[in-house]
Amino acid sequence: MSEKKPFRPPMDHEEFRRIGKETVDYIADYLETVQTRPVYPGVQPGYLRRLIPGEAPQDPEAWEDVFADVERVIMPGVTHWHSPDFHAYFAPGNSYPSQLGDMLCNALGCVGFSWAASPACTELESVVLDWLGKMLHLPEHLLAGTAGAGGGVIQGTASEAILVAMLSARTKVIRREQQASPESCDHDVMKKLVAYTSDQAHSCVDKAAMIAAVKLRKLPTDSDFSLRGSTLSAAIEEDKANGLIPFFCCATLGTTPSCAFDKLLEIGPVCSKEGMWLHIDAAYAGSAFICPEYRPLLDGVEFADSFNLNPHKWLRVNFDCSTMWVRNRADVVDAFNVDPLYLRHDNQGLVTDYRHWQIPLGRRFRSLKLWFVLRMFGVKGLQQYIRKHVSLAKEFESLVLSDDRFEVSAKVVMGLVCFRLKGSNSLSERLLQKINETRKIFMVPAKLRDTYVIRFAICAATTESSDIVHAWNVIREQADGVLTGIQNGV
Ligand SMILES: Cc1ncc(COP(=O)(O)O)c(C=O)c1O
């Protein structure tokens, strides 16, 4: 019989101290030199399965062997989101104070679903969301530390914030309709519910409507890709005439395809008049409202029942951190309140229990990283960062405008420029394919109605003017090739 060895944990405190410091060095080296790596990986689907065994090891492995596989197995398949050559999607948040906040969150490892589960977790979140709310000049009724009924919460993603808003609105309207017609069941009301958003809204609004099992109308936008109040009004009238119940509208500030802004000051009064829930999704652009010059774009937020932005996009906080404020926390709690004995505590009802504000039960101590970031950058440091990104986008826009083979496809308001080669969609499609094949820069496309555009987003915290010039040179060089190829019939 083989002798049983006592189990020894893979790392003791001393080893963690040493290896942890080495790992921090590796992370700092990685971020300092990230631009030396091709921004987009050159691997094919399934590459990783061939590089590691199909089963977990029976016996413990040494850290040195595990860590060596980061460069051998992982890095070849990593898209480097924090490289100044990354211009896809929207800016991903990152900073060292935020990373340290996440490390501490992991170490504490508390799962703060209720106040009692870890009081600091709940209380810091509520205070820091008030801080950020005040930085954004949100109306008092959305803040927790006031006489109002509202408050803030950190969701994992904007998708979750929008789903929570839609489900809360659904519960609220079902209760209202059942009061008016006590004989109607949930299903009778639900089948008549209709939600609205624009044809430029993020696909997570579609997903929320799928999960909530309600109809969603995607409304057409104006020439600036903004949803107008009159369009919403007309759709509501049509639907009411057909016996439907309009109950929810999701307006977007900073749409994903082109960073357009819905007209809140027109949409808000329509929602108020109809007794509809207004949610504002400002996942990317919302961070910019900490700068007074961009705050007017948020005018009309006073009509909102809920509002979200993602500090994990444009506020130097690492994924995940989507901040959400609600006008009436009771509307959310009513929709999500389940109360088994094992989760109850003595202060129940007197304090915030965030488990009632979200889909999962468990939640991380995400406010730590937001708190560290707000304190270590200060409002001024974060404003400077936003302004720098916008000015880099303007710089890129001027380069595009200086070359008459190209056109800019939408107003440049924040850190995103949508552009294309003049002519057919297929020209720009070919151009983007060629650019991304170089792996020198990385961008993604969007469709603005029927027009194919290339999105150039300022993403990395370390992007400089020289990176914009570098990107433009790559784009021009590839455009030369595409246009010459076309001329030569290739
Ligand atoms: C306007 C907008 N809303 C929602 C989302 C979805 O964000 P999340 O990944 O946090 O769900 C995005 C993502 O880019 C977005 O741009």
UniProtKB/TrEMBL annotation:
GO cellular component, one term: cytoplasm
Pfam families noted in UniProt: Pyridoxal_deC
Biological processes annotated in GO: amino acid metabolic process; carboxylic acid metabolic process; catecholamine biosynthetic process
Stretches assigned to coiled coil: none
InterPro entries: Aromatic_deC, PyrdxlP-dep_de-COase, PyrdxlP-dep_Trfase, PyrdxlP-dep_Trfase_major, PyrdxlP-dep_Trfase_small, Pyridoxal-P_BS
Source taxon at top rank: Eukaryota
Molecular-function GO term, any one: pyridoxal phosphate binding
Positions of modified residues (N6-(pyridoxal phosphate)lysine): 313
UniProt KW keywords: Catecholamine biosynthesis, Decarboxylase, Lyase, Pyridoxal phosphate
Cofactors, names only: pyridoxal 5'-phosphate
PANTHER family: GROUP II PYRIDOXAL-5-PHOSPHATE DECARBOXYLASE (PTHR11999), MIP05841P (PTHR11999:SF70)
Family: Belongs to the group II decarboxylase family.
The protein's assembly and partners: Homodimer.
UniProt-recorded name of the protein: Aromatic-L-amino-acid decarboxylase-like
Lineage: Eukaryota, Metazoa, Chordata, Cephalochordata, Leptocardii
Gene field: LOC109483075
